[in-house]
Amino acid sequence: MIGDLSSFTPSSFDLREIVFVAQMPHVRERIQLEYSPWFQFLLGLLQVEVEYSDVFHYVDGALLELEVRMGYRTNADAADDWHNLIATNITRTLECTISDEKVKMIVLSEFNFNSLNEHLIKTSLFKAH
């Protein structure tokens, strides 16, 4: 696990070496939280913050390409028995502003579910805004 990306030295130029994982809902006070079928909306955001460096030069309209996979499991499944819901590649254009202090990036919308009911999942996954 990488605690701080600033100390990460990749072994190749393949940036897929870095994997971000999120489990929702998470465990709180040793209790695995659950989503209710009545839960109506889930929104995922990826906020990119780039520290300014004289070594790396800003490229206007730089593209961020992500390989995204989303899985699920039910109460009847084992703790490590995940099912693939969707796998897709998405591309977002980074919109950056550079000040003398630092580089700021916009927040990128990753996904949203309009309904989390297991029988009525309607996705508007990965639409560019």
Gyration radius (Cα, Å) is 18 Å
Approximate helicity band = under 10%
Mean pLDDT: 71
Major beta sheet, strand line-up:
1-2
Question: What is the first-to-last residue Cα distance?
Answer: 32 Å
Number of DSSP-assigned strands: 8
Low-pLDDT runs? 117-129
Main sheet? 2 strands, antiparallel
Beta-strand residue fraction:
25-35%
Sequence of secondary-structure elements = EEEEEEEE
> In terms of structural class, how would the helical and strand content be classed?
mainly beta
Total of helices: 0
Instruction: Give the overall shape.
Output: elongated
Domain Wntless GOLD: 2-103
GO molecular function, one term: Wnt-protein binding
Protein name: Wntless GOLD domain-containing protein
Pfam families: WLS_GOLD
Task: Explain what you see.
GO terms for molecular function: Wnt-protein binding. Residues 2-103 form the Wntless GOLD domain. This is Wntless GOLD domain-containing protein. InterPro entries: WLS_GOLD (IPR053936), Wntless (IPR009551). Pfam families: WLS_GOLD. The chain has 129 residues and is mainly β. It has a domain at 38-113. It has no helices and 8 strands. The chain has strands at 27-28, 31-32, 42-47, 63-72, 83-93, 96-98, 103-105, 107-113. The strands form 4 sheets. The chain has a two-stranded antiparallel ribbon. A two-stranded antiparallel sheet has the order 3-8. A hairpin with a 4-residue loop joins strand 6 (96-98) and strand 7 (103-105). 1% of the residues are buried. Residues 117-129 have low confidence and may be disordered.
